[in-house]
Amino acid sequence: MAIDYKKELEAAARSMILVHEPDTLIRMIVRMIAHKLKVTHAGILLYEKSRQSYVLTVSRGIAGFKIPKGFARMGLDNPLISFFREHLDKKIFHDGALAYVDVKKAAQKKNLNPKTRKLLKALLYQMEIYSSEVCIPSYFRDDLLGLLLLGEKKNGKKFHQDELNFFVALAHDVAMAIRNAQLFKDLELELEKERSLFKHTTIALAAAIDAKDHYTQGHTSRVNNICMEIAKRLSLKNKNIFNQNLMEHLDTASLLHDIGKIGIPENILNKEGALDENEMKFMQQHPLIGATILSPIKELAPAILGVKYHHEKYDGTGYPEGLKADQIPLVASIISVADTFDAITTNRPYRKGLSREEAIEEIEKASGTQFDPEIAQAFIELYREKYLPTA
Amino acid sequence: MAIDYKKELEAAARSMILVHEPDTLIRMIVRMIAHKLKVTHAGILLYEKSRQSYVLTVSRGIAGFKIPKGFARMGLDNPLISFFREHLDKKIFHDGALAYVDVKKAAQKKNLNPKTRKLLKALLYQMEIYSSEVCIPSYFRDDLLGLLLLGEKKNGKKFHQDELNFFVALAHDVAMAIRNAQLFKDLELELEKERSLFKHTTIALAAAIDAKDHYTQGHTSRVNNICMEIAKRLSLKNKNIFNQNLMEHLDTASLLHDIGKIGIPENILNKEGALDENEMKFMQQHPLIGATILSPIKELAPAILGVKYHHEKYDGTGYPEGLKADQIPLVASIISVADTFDAITTNRPYRKGLSREEAIEEIEKASGTQFDPEIAQAFIELYREKYLPTA
User: Fold this and answer.
1) Does B144 lie in the same domain as B110?
2) Predicted model pTM
3) Following CA atoms B380, B383, B387, B388 in sequence, which dihedral angle do they give, to the nearest 10 degrees?
4) Does ipTM come in above 0.95?
């Protein structure tokens, strides 16, 4: 047996550790095996818990030998499967790899007990169905993870015992790598689920706040959309302005920017007509109330700044702290533009909303006084280039 | 070189893939190496990004040779580090493992350019400080992940070239395993962060709802605590009643059970005195409103049932649907007991709260009519055995 393909396969198996996508990994392995071993075909059946069976996941080979992926599967009662799952191989053969020729030889022995003869014949039949010359089990601990099926060598030669031994060692490496990839994948799915849970909870909460303030139906999701578009536009101009993390904080902050309204009395929140000075003072508490509600969530610190300061103005005349220009956190400055645009284009009982064109003119006029000029500019460009979400 | 320790080390290195705790993994490796190789000491220096240096993470060896963990570190300007980081080894020696004897021999050559001689002398000095006979780099792609330092063999013999070659291959496996473990750890930390973010957001939200309803300060966190205690108690009696997943849903549902109050007008929510029939009807909308607010969050489906049905009664006289006995989801039945207990023990403007003892009697009386008897029983046991949270 040539040492070179062994070494190559071993090296490849080792590099597999860092392939964390189980499907990619398995496809890689089978391709590699079929290529290096020069067999008519190679396939891997992997255990699928949900189907309680071993499913042909990848199959490579020359025409006529290739079994369609997903087509073939073996149930737990399949003789090949139970043979390896119940570790019967150790009783009958010296090691884990099963060669068709060896099974045939064993089945022809005289004085065989009928049960064993029946089992061996069933194995032969299965291997014929899958045109497998060799069948190599892949275990993780005691569990059969999968089966590697190999067709004949293209040069017609037989597999040697040392080759079979090598395959068993290789199958172990492969099993470990697959198991590792599966664990990784599980963890990634879990993470994705948690992220989506948080995102959906924030959206639901924002919608509940919107529903509370009768005049702001859909306000939050529109502001959120505009904010994300502005951020993307700013990123085009300056790659370093946003990292993934800050982008997520802007997403959260824009969804929760009005959460403080939960603390504003309904008679003020839903008053038909302009607010008097006292009511206005109350209303202006909402950014601080929002920041206070969220303050125990340490992970949200940068988003909380966006909530707290989204009514600050570039020239320092805003609230709650009268911050100026660069003192205002970027997230807050972006929400400020989006929030104002949506507010002035929405109808209120006491005034009709501006048209989008009129509103853009207002934003342009207030650039450098109310708004950060760079952000106002990015927003106006979005509008001019029709990138602005309309919903 | 004995083949047996090679095989053992190789097998061990392969099994490392599934050790996903980097520290454990590294400790395992060094212990294994020191043990199998019978060297006076073995240590691993690993790169720490935050410290911009290679820190001695594990060290094993006989007294006098063992370097205290964390004590030693090499900066990026350390000759040994820069030697491997800049891949100078390939220029001077034939492969990656550096043996003290080879460096010494090279340094004594005539006609050496002064820069190289200086470098070699610096390397020798470093290896003497760490009493290292051999120094093996561990790369991931082109990055130097760490250095394995080996002392002398206890039997006084030299390391052979084929041993050094083997160490280099081993160091590659180790680097892959460490990298894999680190990626796993990163993912786990990320998941932990997301979970805590969701939990903290739910708590903050619940607190905001509590603040809205003037009479229920701290209500939500008390109900949450009692629910979790009841669940633990029920689990003691019947292991299969809760899995981790349902436990998390109970946690979420008990925190959010009153979120629907966000939709109840303030004059009803905070009315001083009993509610009239119409107001009561309005108030009784809160479980449905809560379920509606949360309904877009598909991941929370089982928790939403808890929110929706926490005012159902065991005998079918509750609201919103008049569900009976086993029709009421377990999560809702648990919240019902905890919620009632907290409500009747809290002072209201129009009535003083019951004492805990009186409240327990009420719960006992209503077992089988208002409450699921099993849950009421578990709750009463908690109280009798002083397991009930008092805050």
Assistant:
1) yes
2) 0.75
3) 100
4) no
